Amino acid sequence: MKTVIVYGSTLGNSKLTAERIAFTLGNAELFEVNRFPFGSLPEADLYIFGGSTWGLGELQDDWGVKIDDLQSAALTGKKVALFGTGDQNSYSDTFCDAVGTLYDAAISAGATVIGPWERSGYDFSESKAVRFGRFVGLIIDEENQYDLSSERIAAWCTQILEEMN
């Protein structure tokens, strides 16, 4: 399975998460979002988009510039998975909101989003990344739960592979 992972990272947590996902899945190509050709998508079986949430629920800066490109990308019939990094203690009321924004853009572009993630094990008050009682993608909190990140990434990658088959 060929996978393309596109991430936006300011302090490095999202880049680290993208690299760990790529390593776990194998055969994955990594792109920083500001260098990704949304207008001429590289061929892949799965596209994974991810990044961090900033301020009061905003997209990471590079994603903020590229979100319209994602929304207008030719993703009809394509499988997309999402991940996000955030801080559930300091930003409990906007925890990983950016993943919800990425979800909305991917859906608008016609993508089929796979890889929902359970809310259990997190302590937050609100998140735009929660739809139908689950997160719309993998959620990683390197600030407060770094000891769970490897286990969560491995479990999510296994889930993604099962959903692709």
Describe the structure.
- This protein has 165 residues and is α/β, with parallel strands linked by helices.
- The protein has one domain (3-164): Flavodoxin domain (Rossmann fold), CATH 3.40.50.
- It has four helices and nine strands.
- The strands form two sheets. Strands 1, 2, 3, 4, 5, 6 and 9 form a seven-stranded mixed sheet that branches. The chain has a two-stranded antiparallel ribbon with strand order 7-8.
- β3 (46-54) and β4 (58-59) form a beta hairpin.
- α1 (13-25) packs across α4.
- The protein starts with a strand and ends with a helix.
The percent range for helix content is 25-40%
Order of helices and strands: EHEEEHEHEEEEH
**Class by SSE composition:** alpha/beta
Poorly predicted ranges (pLDDT <50, ≥5 residues)?
none
What is the typical, i.e. mean, pLDDT?
97
Structural domain count:
1
Major beta sheet, specifics?
Answer: 7 strands, mixed
Distance between the termini: 10 Å
Count every helix, treating DSSP H or I runs of 4 or more residues as helices: 4
What is the CATH domain class?
Answer: Alpha Beta
CATH architecture: 3-Layer(aba) Sandwich
Strand content: 15-25%
Question: How many β strands by DSSP?
Answer: 9
CATH topology grouping = Rossmann fold
Radius of gyration, in angstroms, nearest whole number: 14 Å
CATH H-level superfamily title: Flavodoxin domain
